[in-house]
Design goal:
The structure holds two protein chains of two kinds. Chain A is of the alpha+beta class. Helix content of chain A is 36%, strand content 25%. A four-stranded antiparallel sheet of chain A has the order 2-3-1-4. The longest helix of chain A has 18 residues. Chain B has a four-stranded antiparallel sheet. In chain B, strand 2 and strand 3 form a beta hairpin. In chain B, helix 1 packs across helix 2. The interface between A and B is large, with 40 and 40 residues. Strand 5 of chain A pairs antiparallel with strand 2 of chain B.
């Protein structure tokens, strides 16, 4: 059982991150894995969905709502940042304490989680400087 | 010579947009690269990007234990693969991004 203080701090930290990210362009601004609160990691999830490219915006909206509903049930430690939707695969970026919680979310939501990979860092053109 | 900037620098032609791509690069043990090694790999990538600018622009890459997930803006998939070929990086899978969704997509 986690300590209440640690849980509260972590939930607060995640809430602050979520608040800062709200409205910000995804992939342009997001937390660096190294700066996440202790016990929270960043994950990329691959979801193979052959018909994804034919889904209409209403279907994507419904899927997002379902996902958010499951996230609320699972508590504040797991956060969905954003997902890249391609023709037959979705790449999702999440914050969570472990892979098991990510897979639990997928199972409850009825989404595939074909690969769940912890992100150690995010690099970009500035990394070259 | 035009220099590839950091985040998305779109061409100035009006009504011209280039799609985003997600590229999977299977690179065993990439997660164990030191910061110096990652910096060197980034420099190499940027050198090739300078040659190909503005057809390929690097947004960012998520580094995991054995794979990179790279987000690029590019004219087309061929440009993405050309960058990979010139740089000596694998491009295991290249997918055009149709849209990006997040918790606000559900109307929350």
């Amino acid at each position: 059982m986690k300590k209440t203080t640690t849980q509260s701090f972590r939930a607060l930290a995640l809430a602050v991150i979520a608040f800062v990210l709200a409205g910000a362009a995804p992939a342009a601004e997001q937390p660096q894995p190294e700066s996440l609160p202790a016990g929270i990691k960043m994950f990329v999830i691959e979801r193979n969905m052959p018909d994804l490219g034919t889904m209409k915006s209403e279907q994507l909206k419904a899927a997002s709502q379902k996902s958010c509903g499951v996230l609320r049930d699972l508590g504040p430690d797991i956060r969905w940042l954003h997902s890249y939707v391609t023709g037959n695969k979705m790449y999702c970026v999440y914050l969570a304490p472990n892979e098991e919680l990510v897979r639990e979310h997928a199972k409850r939501g009825g989404f595939p989680a074909d690969a769940v990979k912890e992100v150690s860092t995010i690099i970009g053109p500035k990394t070259a400087e | 010579m035009r220099r590839a900037r950091g985040l998305a620098t779109l061409p100035t032609e009006p009504r011209f947009t280039m799609p985003k791509y997600v590229i999977e690069r299977d690179i065993p043990a990439i997660g164990q690269f030191t910061p110096a090694q990652l910096s060197e790999a980034s420099r190499k990538s940027c050198n090739v990007l300078h040659q190909l600018a503005p057809r390929v622009q690097w947004v960012q890459s998520y580094v995991t234990a054995d794979k990179l997930y790279c987000v690029y803006i590019a004219a087309n998939e061929e440009a993405v693969r050309e960058h990979a070929r010139l740089g000596g990086f694998p491009a295991t899978r290249v997918s055009a991004v149709k849209t990006i969704i997040d918790p606000t997509t559900g109307g929350d």
